[in-house]
Amino acid sequence: MKRSKIHDRNKLIIECTQSCNCPNSCVNQVVGSCLGKINIECSVRKTEKMGYGLFAERDIDEGEFLGCYLGEMVIHDPKNPGSYIDDAYYFEYFTEINQYLPNPSTALYVDARKYGNATRFLNHSCQPNLEGFHAIINFDKDNPSDSQLPSIAFFAKKFISKGSQLQYDYTSSYWNVMNSQGVFCNCDAKVCHYSYKKFKNNKK
Ligand SMILES: C[S@@+](CC[C@H](N)C(=O)[O-])C[C@H]1O[C@@H](n2cnc3c(N)ncnc32)[C@H](O)[C@@H]1O
Ligand SMILES: [Zn+2]
Ligand SMILES: [Zn+2]
After folding, report:
1. CA 21/CA 37 separation, integer angstroms
2. Which residues form ligand 1's pocket by a CB distance below 6 Å?
3. What span, in angstroms and rounded, lies between the C-alpha atoms of 204 and 197?
4. Which of 2, 48, 84, 155 has the fewest CB atoms inside 10 Å of its own CB, making it the most exposed?
5. Residue 39 sits in a domain of what CATH number?
6. 30 CA distance to ligand 1 centroid (A)?
7. pLDDT, tens digit, 9 for 90 and up, residues 15-56
8. Pure H helices in the chain
9. Per the structure, how many domains does the chain have?
10. Residue of 49, 123, 185, 187 to mutate, ligand 1, most atoms within 8 A of C-beta
11. Taking the model in full, what pTM does it have?
12. Which residues of the chain have pLDDT under 50?
């Protein structure tokens, strides 16, 4: 698969840290206390039309934290797709950071192809039950620029019943590129925005 992906992720969570002097009861250390693990019982299963997917093994309440997208940080030029082998597990980090890269036409991605956790199996849905946020888990208020890069953290957007597939919105910029290459969304949403049928109707 050769394409560029631009995910819009502009929602930022700043969590408390040890240096906040918060009491042990502080509830603002959810992502930071998870250390890259998956926080909710779930399983990887084969789907009918989307390859493998991640499924809830218990009911999940709205707002529960699933886990972070993990992988290798890679820099690629989306206009030069031949420079990488497989971008199926790319998650574009956040576009604002790209201006700090040495070559302004390149972009920073988290690539879960070789290294990652089960969030690499999260498929797209046009009616998603998860939402991704950027979470800074070691914010240093005296030296903000010393803080590490944010993590990409997935939370339940609504109540999710046991057995449901866990999915987030890959965004229109992802699907615009995919649709233009003849790849279409196979999600089960009542209203799918990026199906072949929708694409054909929009062309009329
Ligand atoms: C991050 S991977 C998700 C896991 C993948 N299904 C697997 O088996 O490894 C992204 C890939 O999953 C597939 N995919 C995800 N959501 C999809 C959807 N709504 N419709 C069709 N394919 C989808 C596409 O092949 C996409 O490149
Ligand atoms: Zn706190
Ligand atoms: Zn869809």
Report:
1. 25
2. 50-53, 88-89, 120-121, 123-124, 185-187
3. 11
4. 48
5. 2.170.270.10
6. 27
7. 888 778 888 888 899 999 887 899 999 999 999 999 999 999
8. 172-180, 196-203
9. 1
10. 123
11. 0.90
12. 1-9
